[in-house]
Structures
1.
Amino acid sequence: MLILYEILQAAKEAAAFREDKIKLEKEVEELTLHLQLEKQMRSDLEKEIQLQSQENV
């Protein structure tokens, strides 16, 4: 019976690990998208600043 209990515990742990993995993957995806957006915004801002400085010359 002890072996069966250990197998069931291992199965529960594996399921919990899978759920945690899925949550982490979603969080990584969200953070990646956020980072890409911030990079694009920074690039756009730098271009705008460069254009303004050229206009002031």
Note: The CA atoms of residues 38 and 44 lie 10 Å apart.
2.
Amino acid sequence: MPSGCSPTWRKGTTEALPGPESPDGPRLEAKVVAALERIGRALRVQLWNAVKRRGLSPVQAQILLHLRAHDETLGRVGSIAREFGLTPPTVSDSVSALEAKGLVERSASAADGRAAVLTLTPAGHAAARELQSWAAGLEEAIAAMPPADQEAALQFLLRLIEQLQRRGSITVARVCFTCRFFRPAAEQTAGEPYCALLEKPLPPAALRVDCPEHEPASA
């Protein structure tokens, strides 16, 4: 943009309005970022509304949901810190608070007795089940869209996660596109992506966001 010219900003958004030097408006990628930011804002509000009723912080709620969804191999403080892009001390403080609430307990790992793993108590399981529906409002909005649009959105978001991981913005991405078992559609005679581990095609709706069998592809 020439010196002396600046974009016009709409109050309450991160998206610049078209200015005199930008007849076509913001770049497409800038519009996508602005849209994702708005969705992220809505998600943060929904999560906050869900956790404050239970006397939890957003990080504490995410830890409960993480432990409910994964086995003990991902139940260590270090693993959780990498998962959410947090420091181990931050996670440890949240875990201590959850222990004090009787929702989480530490135990020796079955694979390595020297390592401590985190598990949910019965009360923790109950709290995690209640929290599962924290994004129900957004899920309902997505469900109202045509299936083809939902599938296209899933593929786009998984590709975006892949790109962000390659750039170091996301540390953990157990999605199909970053897995060594994934075979792109272009390599298949049927013209559809394929999972070499499960030995079956991967139509858009079958693509995984957090696959327990994921193994990182070589760089």
Note: The beta strands are 8-9, 16-17, 104-108, 116-120, 182-183, 194-195, 200-201.
3.
Amino acid sequence: MSAYQKKVLESVSFNQELFEKELKKVKNWLLVEDLREFVDWVLKTFSTMFPDLESKIKEFFADIFVEEPVLLID
């Protein structure tokens, strides 16, 4: 997980619009494997500041975090 992206989000957390703009950019910087850990950190750190953060993350990363298919066994 990138310390740089963490610092950027912390520095713009005073403004939701800037925060969301920088959060979207994370897709271009981190590997898919690292994104889930990063998103967990974002939710733990900023969810009280931004109540709709979870839905925004689902929106921003919908193409990456696709739900796993459910296997039905007969």
Note: The CA atoms of residues 1 and 38 lie 6 Å apart.
4.
Amino acid sequence: MARYEPPTHAPSIMQPVSIIICAKNEAENLKKNLPHILNQNYPFFEVIVVNDNSSDETEKIILEFKKKISDLVPR
């Protein structure tokens, strides 16, 4: 039987984090939620938004955010 034991010391370097969002026709949700996701105080993070062949304005919203925020990676 395994048991989790937390490290006895805090890591000295914060690890980078990638946030991946899969979006199919999520223009309204992206407009509402991306600002909150991008407004993090974590020093090393990126946001990857995957547009899954949307027929709404998802791609337009992603590209508008990309112009303003360098941590956003459209795919």
Note: The first helix runs from residue 27 to 38.
